[in-house]
């Protein structure tokens, strides 16, 4: 898959079938739309493409509430590539794009740059200045200018509309066990392991600490059954998200205890998958009581891993 990070990088490319949308979660609805795009491109002898923005449009729109990311870009690109896409247009939502009229967006971006012959989009796709562009506008212009538009119906699972907003709400409420159903994968966060307070090590539960990325959606404070991936291997683990109230006054972070693991991970990159929330974070009377609770948490988590072996 070839990734274009600006419109300037796109010179002259073959005709494309383009999946239009933000694809910020690449959930099952997004995956279905992209799969249809790839199939149509192969049938027509064209290149398949996904058009997304490198930053969320709402984060640069005046008066809009900031939107947290569900995926890091490298994960997003990897998932899209696995779906068989030829081109990924990862374009910044800048002032030029923000103020571009809908018809200019079609002519200057979709047709001139992407060489779009067909497009697939969701029923609620919006584009252009003040989101004036709609699937109906695309269909009307397609008839005039000779490109095809396929508008997909709302994607539902068991009557629930699958959307990135809904998935953010699941994560924000700690319902991480439901993410697999709607995303096709576990919710996960990752990053470089940093030095913590090392108290876990002194009570027999060494942890790998990650600083919270404020641009990413994170679950509420609590203890979670997790998997931790390092160097291509997935290890059963348990993770605390929170501020460690029993120990002192700390910023919210993620600390993971990996079972049967004794490697030093400071400075290394790990990825933590959240399987289920087991309890809320709370303040204990002291380290001894905390240690007893962690022992109980670990017994529960190990049992969960035994019962639900991840494949």
UniProtKB/TrEMBL annotation:
Keyword Transmembrane present in the record's keywords: the answer is no
| Keyword entries, A-Z | ATP-binding, FAD, Flavoprotein, FMN, Kinase, Multifunctional enzyme, Nucleotide-binding, Nucleotidyltransferase, Transferase
The enzyme's E.C. designation:
2.7.1.26, 2.7.7.2
Identify a single GO molecular function assigned to this protein. riboflavin kinase activity
Q: Which domain of life is it from?
A: Bacteria
Part of which pathway?
Cofactor biosynthesis; FMN biosynthesis; FMN from riboflavin (ATP route): step 1/1; Cofactor biosynthesis; FAD biosynthesis; FAD from FMN: step 1/1
Q: Which SUPFAM superfamilies match?
A: Nucleotidylyl transferase (SSF52374), Riboflavin kinase-like (SSF82114)
Q: Name one Pfam family in it.
A: FAD_syn
- Biological processes per GO annotation: FAD biosynthetic process; FMN biosynthetic process; riboflavin biosynthetic process
Q: Does the keyword Transferase apply?
A: yes
InterPro entries associated with the record? FAD_synthase, Riboflavin_kinase, Riboflavin_kinase_bac, Riboflavin_kinase_bac/euk, Riboflavin_kinase_dom_sf, Rossmann-like_a/b/a_fold
Q: The Riboflavin kinase domain covers which part of the protein? A: 182-306
As its record notes, the protein acts as a catalyst of: riboflavin + ATP = FMN + ADP + H(+); FMN + ATP + H(+) = FAD + diphosphate
**Matching SMART domains:** Flavokinase
Q: Which family does it belong to?
A: Belongs to the ribF family.
Name of the protein this chain belongs to = Riboflavin biosynthesis protein
Q: Which organism is it from?
A: Aminipila butyrica
